[in-house]
């Protein structure tokens, strides 16, 4: 009986992590059915000109949730600036936010980057529109033009440190945590690299799990298939995991799937990613090897 009660207590402690009022991914039909839901805030994260030319009715334009800072390409703004951007978009902690990018292919990770930033900032109910605006228009859904706004809220960011890895965390856990590399196989193997990354190859022991595998024909693969990919690498949901890429965008794609769709609770996205860690003299990338 005592063991049973302890198990109930443990489950009660875990439950809030999985408490979601919306799935991690929603389709065009769901979004259309919820256009008049007062809690739903649709944020279009495409270029402003593209947004003005055509967007989901009621959507607001939201940019600036990642920025160049400290010599790194894509960093989270300071908490006060982040709070202001989110509040001006009409979002509060009770909102159900749907992130809309151009498509579910090349732009997919840019949608998850915004979604990750929002949940990191303290907005728990965030979804990504599967297939993006391209899928919305392909389905023949209504569109609007011009610029729309929502009343500003009093939102204040409450950053969740369990969702992010910084350089100090990575260096302290580089041999203990599961390091997942979300870049392409060619980059992981050391055949190519971005100019802003100082080393070819990957962190020793890192698992290769390309973000490009998450979608096919612009849509997210079935949940069971994505889970199979992760488990095929023998990744353990109960162990600390750090996902990185080149500059903190692609890594959020797998973070979103593992954390928000599959419910893995010990996953962190590394904002600085290879752009930052490759500058560390103590970290020697390896090439032409798997792990």
Quaternary state of this entry equals single chain
Task: Look up the CATH topology of the largest domain.
Answer: Oxidized Rhodanese, domain 1
Alpha plus pi helix count: 11
Low-pLDDT runs of 5+ residues are 1-17
Number of strands: 14
How much β-strand is present in the residues?
15-25%
Order of helices and strands: HEHEHEEEHEHEHEHEHEEEHEHEH
What is the first-to-last residue Cα distance? 44 Å
Strand order of the largest sheet: 1-7-6-2-3
Instruction: Tell me the name of the CATH class of the largest domain.
Output: Alpha Beta
Write the layout of secondary structure elements.
Blueprint: H1 2-18, E1 25-26, H2 28-33, E2 40-44, H3 48-53, E3 60-61, E4 67-69, E5 72-75, H4 79-88, E6 96-100, H5 108-120, E7 126-129, H6 132-138, E8 164-165, H7 167-173, E9 178-181, H8 185-189, E10 207-208, E11 215-216, E12 219-220, H9 223-232, E13 241-244, H10 250-261, E14 267-270, H11 273-277
Parallel strand pairs: 1-7, 2-3, 2-6, 6-7, 8-14, 9-10, 9-13, 13-14
Antiparallel strand pairs: 4-5, 11-12
Helix pairs in contact: 5-10
Notes on the structure:
The protein is an alpha/beta fold and 291 residues long. It folds into two domains: 20-138, Oxidized Rhodanese, domain 1, CATH 3.40.250.10; 161-277, Rhodanese-like domain (Oxidized Rhodanese, domain 1). The chain is 34% helix and 15% strand. The protein contains eleven helices and 14 strands. The protein has a five-stranded parallel β-sheet with strand order 1-7-6-2-3. α5 crosses α10 (250-261). The longest helix has 17 residues, at 2-18. It is globular, with a radius of gyration of 19 Å. The relative contact order is 0.15. Residues 1-17 have low confidence and may be disordered.
């Amino acid at each position: 009986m005592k063991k049973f009660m302890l198990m109930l207590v443990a489950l009660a402690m875990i439950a809030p992590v999985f408490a979601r009022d919306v799935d991690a991914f929603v389709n065009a039909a769901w979004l259309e059915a919820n256009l008049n839901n007062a809690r739903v805030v649709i944020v279009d994260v495409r270029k402003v000109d593209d947004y003005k030319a055509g967007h989901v009715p009621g959507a607001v334009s939201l940019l600036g949730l990642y920025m160049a800072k400290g010599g790194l390409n894509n960093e989270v703004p300071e908490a006060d600036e982040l709070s202001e951007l989110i509040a001006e978009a009409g979002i509060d902690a009770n909102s159900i936010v749907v992130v809309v990018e151009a498509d579910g292919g090349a732009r997919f990770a840019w949608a998850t980057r915004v979604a990750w930033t929002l949940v990191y900032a303290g907005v728990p109910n965030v979804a990504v529109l599967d297939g993006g605006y391209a899928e919305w228009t392909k389905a023949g859904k209504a569109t609007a033009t011009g610029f729309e706004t929502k009343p500003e809220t009093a939102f204040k960011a409450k950053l969740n440190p369990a969702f992010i890895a910084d350089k100090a965390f990575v260096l302290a856990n580089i041999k203990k945590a599961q390091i997942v590399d979300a870049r392409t196989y060619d980059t992981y193997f050391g055949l190519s690299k971005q100019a802003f990354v100082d080393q070819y190859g990957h962190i020793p022991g890192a698992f290769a799990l390309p973000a490009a595998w998450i979608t096919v024909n612009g849509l997210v693969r079935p949940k069971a298939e994505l889970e199979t990919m992760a488990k095929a690498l023998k990744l353990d949901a109960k162990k600390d995991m750090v996902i990185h890429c080149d500059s903190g965008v692609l890594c959020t794609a797998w973070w979103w799937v593992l954390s928000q769709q599959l419910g893995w609770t010990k996953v962190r996205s590394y904002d600085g990613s290879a752009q930052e860690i490759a500058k560390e003299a103590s970290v020697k990338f390896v090439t032409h090897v798997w792990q």
